[in-house]
Amino acid sequence: MTSAPFSLRFGRFCYLAFNVGVVVFLLAPIAIVFVFALNPTPYIQFPPVGVSMRWFEKFFASRDFMNALWFSLEVAVLTTVAATLFGASAALALARGRLPGSRAITAIMLSPLMLPAILTGLALFQTYVLLDVGRPTWGLVLGHTIVSIPYVVRTTLAVLHNFDTRLEEAAQNLGAGALRTYFEVTLPLTKPGVMAGAVFAFIVSFDQFPISLFLVSPGHETLPITLFNYLKFDLDGTIGAASVVSIVLAVLVVVGLDRTVGLRSYAEL
Amino acid sequence: MTIIRKPVNRRQFLAVAATAGAGIIAAPHVARAQAATLRITGWGGKWGQTMSAELIPAFEKEFKCKVETDTAFPFLPKLQASSRSNPVYDVLHTNSNEQWAALEMGIVEAKIDPKQVPNIADVYPYAVSDKIVGVTIFTSAIGLGMRTDKGYGKVTSWKDLWDKAYDGVRGGYVIPVNSLGQAFVMMSGMLYGKGMTDLDAAYAALEKVKPMKLADFTGTMEKMILSGEVGLAVIHDSGILRYDGQNQPTAFVAPSEGVMALEQVLTLTPGTKVRELANAYVNYMLSPGVQKTLAESVWYSPANSKVKLDDKYNDKLLTTPAKVATLIQPDWKWYNAHKDEIDSRVNRIFRA
Amino acid sequence: MKATRASVSPIAWLIAPSALLFALFFFLPMGLMALISVLSGNPVVQSNVTFTGKYYARILSDSYYFEVIWTTIRIGLFTTLAALLVGYPLAHWMARIRGRTAYALLMMSVLTPMLTGIVVRTFAWMALLSDKGAINQTLTGLGLIAKPLSLMYNEFSIVLGLTHIYIPYMVLTLVGVIGRIDERLEHAAQNLGASPLRAFFEVTLPLSLPGILAGSLLVFALAISAYVTPILMGGFQIMTLPMLIYQQISSSFNVGFAAALGMVLLAISLALIIAYNRILGMISGQRDLQ
């Protein structure tokens, strides 16, 4: 590299500096959240006046926040399972089912991603009124599932389009039926894409706001809704503490994913 | 032990299956009916804490019921979308302007029967006046909140808010979504025109009051005043007084022209299945003990005239007929009829 | 492409559960909203409602709504452009970086913001940009400025907040596409005398066009339907379509008008998806010809 001309080294430097800048940009607000969570004053103040754990204590002592955190996790897990099952099987049908009009169907499957979620939320609420089912948890989960499926479909399709169909053909030539081929060849190969989709489904559900707005019911509120309502009355460090907790959870999920399936080239949309 | 010998025929089986199926689908409703559940709305923050920690459990115990409080906004669209015969709430607690809108849509009842709610006999006249749907349980006074540490001049009038000295630190509300913002529109018409319904004067005045930092909720404004982001703002007394004793450099000013009433109003929904319980809840909220607890927890002025607050609160809240007389009650029926027109106009005035 | 194409595989049945789910919980609700947008009242809870075009007439009669629609689209375009310009180099770096740890660290810095929660993330920007926020306090503290800079409550802050939130979506879409482009192609171009920059523009960039389109479509769609960020970052002084929809639902209780506005937003999104499919078809068509 030392022999490279100056312009090349300068270009390389700019490239790296820019990208480091982008990473800093991505992480700056998170650093602020940490500062805010530890600063004892009950409003935004900079520079911080000290370090205190009072907001963490308030967060963990608050029944509302704890209920919301657990409920959010519950909804996110259920959504992840549902979206993964629905999305992955749909993706498989689209990629391998030789369906007529599969391109149009793919566009439809991805459309919840493109539509204003606030409208989807209200529309679902109205539908539940029409069906006279109240505001059950499964209704919320299905709402989240609808907007999470597109991610699973995308990641799974990406993997399905990438890997060699000759493996499946070989299995079928050896006499395996379509379903057996699926379970013994396709499924294991698709797993990383499905897992990546599952992670996105979890993220989308855990951070879902507009869909939940109309679908949560008393005593069953998700964390973003609770935070948003809390923000209306008390704009204090508890919000920061709540997000530090979710960031820690997030990092654990990502590290876990890296350890189990490996992140490289699978966590993509 | 009984052994069923009779063979179950197909028809019976189907009937049972259908009932079971319907039961599963309707399970939430059935469960509600059995436990005699009262479904209400309520605020979050300190109000919500006092309610859920203390007052609601006491009510549940006394009336052997379960209370479900929805604190997730927005309340009215959910009630609006739910079936008239099976509303999502039994008692709606919200601000007066929304109660009028709800009445207009036929989703709440106009009045509460004083015979079913004896404590109504003790409320101040404003709480059940012709400007109110249902019954007011508390009110706060909309006036001005200011920083006392920034060397601003003495504030006595609403018109001081138009002083150029407050450019950059003036605070107000998003008019289409906030009661205080809407009350401020009417106050502007009164200050600079022929009265609260003089919209042209109000628009001209709003044009001049810019720049203004807008909040959608009083809690946000409280914090903007506390952090010093805002120096003089429209706010209700409770938003300043509740930091009493914390040595905050803030003060509430009741302008000489009068304060606007921000009423906390309860109404019953026509389709409620637990009418007795709903009335009992309204009566409970108006009882002197509950009124005192909540008034002293969030600095709202109690509607019940028989309530005796501690001196500290008594001095600052509207607790005598003379003090209550300074309240100006806005005509929300008129305002709501003009809301769309006002919204599209003020949305234009306040866009960046 | 052999004869096998003719028959539909049994695997196709795997679409059935999703189809049912979408029919019940997506098309039915959306159809209901479309219906409400042309009715005088809510058919679910009211009787004697009639058909009306008044909500659409209202949108057409007032230029304010056109301005709101245009503001929404403009914010979407700027956000998409910013996310692409900032996200592409990062995605390129991630696609080409060697070493598992470095990659995992980068991936984590992309994924962490996604998991911070939309309310909190936006709130953090407020803590940075408000008059009493970190940037203004630091600058005033250093004596560089006398009055706080207006970093918030304008279109810039909305675009900034949205870009931050949606960069991960752009990056994650691009990483895979760039990663699949054979690095040897770039090297070949360089061996033929092209500078790395030129090799990039003539080889890598054109090949990653499908990813750019897919990522842009995703970010644009997410940005025009964002709600929390525009209200908190815009201080209610910038009105976007989702804000107006929410305002109509929550404070004017006019679900019919909100639904009509929603249909407009829907139409914009659909037009975009169709255009995207067309362009993608054209690009891949060209490649097939080459």
Topology diagram in text:
The complex is a heterotrimer of chains A (269), B (352) and C (290).
Chain A: H1 6-38, H2 54-61, H3 63-96, H4 102-114, H5 117-130, H6 137-162, H7 165-173, H8 178-206, H9 210-215, H10 223-233, H11 238-260
Helix pairs in contact in A: 1-11, 2-11, 3-6, 3-8, 3-10, 4-6, 6-8, 7-8
Chain B: H1 10-35, E1 37-41, H2 45-63, E2 66-70, H3 76-81, E3 91-95, H4 96-104, E4 135-147, E5 170-173, H5 179-192, H6 199-209, E6 213-215, H7 218-227, E7 232-236, H8 237-241, E8 250-253, E9 259-268, H9 275-286, H10 288-298, E10 301-302, H11 311-316, H12 321-324, E11 327-328, H13 332-337, H14 339-349
Parallel strand pairs in B: 1-2, 5-6, 5-7, 9-11
Antiparallel strand pairs in B: 3-9, 4-7, 4-8, 4-9, 4-10
Helix pairs in contact in B: 2-10, 5-6, 6-14
Chain C: H1 16-36, H2 54-61, H3 63-96, H4 100-115, H5 118-129, H6 134-141, H7 155-180, H8 183-191, H9 196-207, H10 209-224, H11 228-234, H12 241-250, H13 255-289
Helix pairs in contact in C: 2-13, 3-7, 3-10, 4-7, 5-11, 7-10, 7-11, 8-9, 10-13, 12-13
Helix content of chain C: over 70%
Number of helix segments of chain A? 11
Mean pLDDT of chain A: 82
**Number of domains as seen in the coordinates of chain C:** 1
Number of strand elements of chain A: 0
Helix content of chain A: over 70%
Question: Could you provide a short overview of the structure?
Answer:
Chain B has 352 residues and is an alpha/beta fold. Chain B has 14 helices and 11 strands.
Give a written overview of the molecule.
The complex is a heterotrimer of chains A (269), B (352) and C (290). With 269 residues, chain A is mostly helical. Chain A has helices spanning 6-38, 54-61, 63-96, 102-114, 117-130, 137-162, 165-173, 178-206, 210-215, 223-233, 238-260. Chain A is globular and about 70 Å long. The mean pLDDT of chain A is 82. In chain B, strands 3, 4, 5, 6, 7, 8, 9, 10 and 11 form a 9-stranded mixed sheet that branches. The model of chain B is unreliable at 1-33 (pLDDT under 50). The radius of gyration of chain B is 24 Å and the shape is globular. Chain B folds into 2 domains: 34-139 and 263-318, Periplasmic binding protein-like II (D-Maltodextrin-Binding Protein, domain 2, 3-Layer(aba) Sandwich); 140-261 and 333-349, Periplasmic binding protein-like II (D-Maltodextrin-Binding Protein, domain 2). Chain B is 43% helix and 16% strand. Chain B has helices spanning 10-35, 45-63, 76-81, 96-104, 179-192, 199-209, 218-227, 237-241, 275-286, 288-298, 311-316, 321-324, 332-337, 339-349; strands at 37-41, 66-70, 91-95, 135-147, 170-173, 213-215, 232-236, 250-253, 259-268, 301-302, 327-328. Chain C has 290 residues and is mainly α. Chain C contains 13 helices and no strands. The longest helix of chain C has 35 residues, at 255-289. The two termini of chain C are 19 Å apart. The chains are: A mainly alpha (269), B alpha/beta (352), C mainly alpha (290). Chains A and C meet through helix 1, helix 3, helix 4, helix 5 and helix 6 of A and helix 1, helix 3, helix 4, helix 5 and helix 6 of C.
